[in-house]
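Morning!

As promised:
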Amino acid sequence: MSTTRLQEVLICFGKQKQTDISTANTSGQMWQLRKLNAALANPKLNTENDAEEFGKGHEFPTQSFQTSWDVNGTLEKYLGSEIGAWAMAYGLGKVVKSGTNPNFTYTCTPLIPASGDAAELPYFSFVEQIRPGAGVVVDRMAVGCVVEGWTIAIGSGPGRANSKITVEFVGSGKATEPSGITVPAATIEKLLPSASLALTINGVNYVSNKNIVSLETSWKNNVRLDSGFYPGSGFQTPGDATSGAIRGRLEFANRQGRLKFVARFENGSTELTKLKNQSTGTAVLSLTYDANNSLDITWQKVSFAMAEVGETDGIVTVSVECLPMYDSTNGIVSAVAKCNVDNICQ
Amino acid sequence: MTKDRVYMKPPFGLGEPKEVDATPEVLVPLMLAGWSQCEPPRLFQETTGEEVTKNVHD
């Protein structure tokens, strides 16, 4: 009997955005990237039963009902220019594309509803396949997914694992099985390694002074999942009220940005002083593969919310939690992602 | 090297698109203020020699 091993799993997802939450990406709009984590994005069917209902003469369920569907998943990857651009565009939500092949530039910012932007994030479809076709094990597509958040972690050390990105996503619940998608050839990814980091936070260049040990930065949309189910939001099978409800919108709620880092602490280090003074400045981190592939993230105004002196491998270090704040001109965060892939989130 | 330029339309669809340098210093404040990317307007095609509306008196 044949065994199915998870190394066979193929994923592809919308490089281009869906036209709306319920219209799936086509094969030509998708790309295949590889991932590190084993978890699958299983569609979850929520059910209810009639145990609580009076009139049956007993307390036991006699019927079960399909009520709603959930989809969520996580992508863990070595950070490359392509997934960096994709995560910034879909995670922050607003994108301007410029440049030409091989240097496309995606300038990304969060959506600002007060300025007329939507509260709905761009949608994409997510496909998982294991042996599609006659010997299919898994072949399904989650339609209407949005990025719930991303985390970039940069560490010290020689390996690729010192530059990683984790992207969480959630879906409308709509799932298509079989997917009907022919997975495109894998995209050749350009790694943005830890050794390429440039980092200036609150006026200090932590790379030129050789003090940075690690950093982590993240964005979370806190997507309103329950309010996606509204009267009329629809069903898994259109027109079939017994097939379970799906979401008709996915909106962000109160979003959160985070930046924390660990640096060597020495005579003249300013982190504790800046914590006491609540000094503010920008935090700019850049990772580069070459002139056409890079990722720059700018937190427009940060102060230090916490700074604690400790140790890392016997060296005195300071662990700093930044407070990203909203700058009236430039907002809270922006990202400029360069890669030679066209049409990301277009 | 010439700077990349893009067209941006104003928030709420009010007003005319404008062409701007595609630099973060220019784009980020505009995006924050509700401007979003758009296709070049037809006027741009005329000024670059791509005639859109023929002059009926020719």
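The interface with chain B takes residues 94-99, 105, 107, 109, 112, 115-117, 296, 298, 329-331, 334, 336 of chain A (CB under 8 Å).

Hope this helps with the figure draft.
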